[in-house]
Design brief:
TM_pro_TauE-like; mainly alpha; globular; TSUP/Inactive_protease-like; single chain; membrane; Membrane transporter protein; transmembrane helix; 10 helices
Length: about 250
Amino acid sequence: MLPIPDFTLLLLITFAGLYAGTQNTLAGGGSFITFPALLLAGLNPLAANITSTIALFPNQITSAFAGRKLAGGVGEVSLSKLSVLSVVGGVIGAILLLNTPATFFAHLVPWLVMVATAIFTWGSFRKKPLHATKSMSAPLLSLVQLLIGIYGGYFGGGIGFLMLAVLTIAGQQVRMAAATKNVLAMAMNASAVVLFTFSSQVNWFAALALAIGGVGGAFTGNWLLHRVPEKLLRGFVVLVGIVLTVWLFLR
């Protein structure tokens, strides 16, 4: 797991972070780039997942604070309550992950990637609602957000699209839902990152390289925002997810 820094490899990981940060800014799905990059760098699936979560966190902070004025709650469920549920779920998911043996997680991760790819594909290409709807009660919304938080702390692939779908179904306008899910994603990953920081599975050289690339990707993504077709980027992520799923099942 890169015990001695291989600078050529770290440079390649930085470029993976740059693309992932750009991808997150433009269309989402950056973890579909960082996770396989860390696997190819020699990390085991558990270490790759934990390291990727930590490395992408600065990018999530930027996204959350940039749109915080648009974020809000849904009816009786305030943004504060949704944030608390996200933090609690993130803690539960992170604790479950830290207590999962690396060998068991290695067998589980192909299925997680397959599910995450399906979620990403559905979220990317489903027909977006033109108007807000109100077909989810406050208790159900709270329960669903808690479950998404647990999934986010454990693996996290596709959580943005899950939250975007849930929030729009619950009654938020799409633009507000997009800002809210960024805040909630930061909240659930903040709790996970705090716990992951003390894990021996973290590869700090790789995490730093990815984080530097991710911050650069945020600026690159903003510059490319109106220059690259979003569907093309999402299509590439779906392709990566499919190839990664097949590779993980066969390796």
